Amino acid sequence: MNQERFERLVRPEMPALFKAAYRLVRNQPDAQDLVQEVCIKANHHLDQLEQCASPLAWLLRVLYHQFVDGVRQKARSPVVTTDLSAESPALASQALSPEVLACQDDEERVFTRAWLELDETQRGLLTLRAEGYGLVEISAITGIAKDVLAPRLHRARRSLKRYLDKHMDEAGAVARLGSGR
Amino acid sequence: MNCQDIAGLLNDRNFQAISDADRRQAEVHLALCPVCAGEWEVALRLRADKIPAMPAFLRQWHPAGAGGRSISTARRRGRLLVIPVLLLAGVAAAVLWLYARQPDSENAPAADAGSLAEDAAITAGAESVDGNEAPSQDPADTAVPDDSAPAPRYRLVVMGPMQMIDNVAAIQAVEGTHRGLLEFFRSRPELDVIVVTQTEVDAVVAELGLENVSEGNQRDRAVARHFDADYSVRVANRYLRAPDIWTISVSYQYSNSLGRGGGSIGFLADAISQGGESPDAKGTDVAEDIYARLFPEAGTANLLSVVGDSAGSPAERLDAFRSVLIMNSPYRPERRVEFTPQAIAGAIEIGRSAVDATNRRYAWALLAQTGDPAVAQPMTDALLYDADANVRATAAEWLLEYSGDPVVRAALESSAVTDSSLDVRVRARWSTLASQDRAGYVRATLLDPRLTPLEQIAPLILARSERYREIDSSSRDSEIAAVDGAALDALAGIARSSNDGATRVAALTELGLGGHSEFQTLLQTAPEDQLRQVTVNLINRSSRTGVKIQLEQMLAWLPPDSGSRDSIESSLSSGR
Predict the structure, then answer these.
(1) pTM, entire model
(2) What is the ipTM for the molecules in this complex?
(3) Chain A interface disruption, residue of B16, B51, B332, most A CBs within 10 A
(4) 3-state helix, strand, coil in chain A (%, to 5)
């Protein structure tokens, strides 16, 4: 019974969840983890989910808070790493692995670095906006009052632009050094 | 269109389906305002972001299988699942590869056989993937050698179409777009076009051991290299959001002596159906755009000729001018394209004589960004003699770039005193001042009792505008510090006496930032719309010393059902 409800309510939304998760963390393993966390929670609340007009909105709300809480929890927790090859205990999104960076071309790498400089709320807001949600929907998902969303989105875009410029400058300097100019 | 309108568009749910009229208006503003242009660029970059498909194992994954275990356990389980999936994928790819090698075109997989008849015929032999023989090519390029045609200089691999959606309309759209792309690229004699079906791409990916590399530039580059090409283009249909909204995306990448990079251009399916444009025509449009990005020297030559063509519409000519400006990224100096004298002269002609004042403003703003010395004199004439105050204001603003020229400087000094428009006078004065002198100008004007309240506050409003904050490149993002002392008292007088809403909002905001003793009292008497605007302005600057205290004090008198109260509480509770 639960399996059938999960297939009906959650499974169709998983690609959309994965997309949003990937945008937030910009690497596949963390995006997978986020989606799995959300699915586990959804599986425990199928009754509640069944009452929702939009299961995707409910799932995105969980995803957003899971992401924000995860990043904040990680920021508060001291991380002791003894084995560099060990899996990160929480979201690895603040520091991308060399493999992930190697799979990205120069422009993507610059973008990823700039993106990860944004705070978690800014990433969440820009992700939802990039996924096509309007202010009313974003407000419902994040719980942030609608009339402060516009200035926050404005600040987030400006910050991202500033970080992009900064990393572009750095990338340009490295390229110039590399070419001996 | 102003900064608020642009913000409205960026935050609009239908941003992706913006009308042509809105786009035109937006582009004019974007050319004038680097801050909005930056935000716009970021929004487009986010929209064009390449998101990998959800991993296969996750598609089948069910939380009951995780048994409530920790997520890192789930991740390990996922990885364990990935291995057999990858092994299976490898076997499947090998089978497909062998399958594709069959010379009988009837054996081609249904999706490919049903996609492009001409490409199915071209690729049925599929000898290209063994690397020993020349890759399959378009008969149009090979069947009839033409000695008069220039030899191809660049090899371009066109991959796909990649079908990610089981939807008839999406399949037709991606195939049409692919046809349009091919039609354009095949018309370029300098291109050696190689068509590679998705089946062939999969086989090459398997052969190169790239199954674990996510779909994107790196993988496409490797596939292109396999065919001895430096350029590739791939067209795919994808879901944008489940499952009713899908897009066509065209990815491209280049790798040559000038650099390496790539990107993608995407458009909603609705953009085809609503625009009344066929997918084939859309594909040709996108191909033109990509061509200009892959081969900037050829693309910009075309664009510059459009600018110089006096028979063309001013708006289209300026759009072409702007496209070249954008391509001249400061991060890629080696790809810089110089504007031809004809292009500069063409844009100057528009600035001088276009009937629509918006086009004249657009022309001067674009021209100033070239730094070309030929621009200074005609733009100075525009400052002094154009009949439209908005054009003169734009000239005053952008002549800052030429303010070291004595003739320009004299004109700015003159306009700062004699122009009939306050906006022009303030902007002209601003352009004559060194950045360290501007705070003094703002303060002195506030304290000048001979001026009207609007005249007193105009330089401060200008200083607070996004555009001018960015123009001070020596102190990027810095602002003139909050005014204090007698200047703040003068602002309190302006807030009490002015009937103009914008003036009052600006004055009240400054009083809040400066912690003036009358701020709370004056704000309580402000109309609701002004109260809301001041609240948002303060929340935006709540990281400044003392601003949070003002916001907290507002909570003491704001009614419980006030929207401003909600905004302040939300802002304070989030700690930002």
Answers:
(1) 0.47
(2) 0.79
(3) B51
(4) 75, 0, 25
Mutate one of B13, B165, B293 to test the A interface: name it (highest A CB count within 10 A).
B13
Q: What residue of A is the nearest CA neighbor of B3?
A: A154
Q: Which tokens sit at A125? A: 């807001």
For residue range B398-438, list pLDDT tens digits in order. Answer: 998 898 999 999 999 999 999 999 999 999 999 999 877 88
For residue range B469-483, list pLDDT tens digits in order: 433 333 333 445 667
B191-196 sheet: strands from edge to edge: B191-196, B154-163, B231-241, B245-256, B259-268
Residue with tokens 């991308």: A96
E-only strand ranges, B388-475: none
Question: Phi and psi at residue B221, in whole multiples of 5°?
Answer: -65, -40
Q: What is the DSSP string of A40-85?
A: HHHHHTHHHHHH-S-HHHHHHHHHHHHHHHHHHHHHHS----S-TT
pLDDT above 90: percentage of residues in chain B:
24
Rg of chain A on CA atoms, in Å: 18
CB-count burial class (<10 Å; 0-12, 13-18, 19+) for B355: exposed
pLDDT in tens, B110-160: 322 222 222 222 222 222 222 222 223 333 333 333 444 455 678 899 998
CB contact under 8 A, B63 and A103: no
Task: Give the chain A residue whose CA is nearest to the CA of B333.
Answer: A172
- Give the residue on B whose Cα is nearest the Cα of A87: B72
| Contact: B13, A37; criterion CB under 8 Å | no
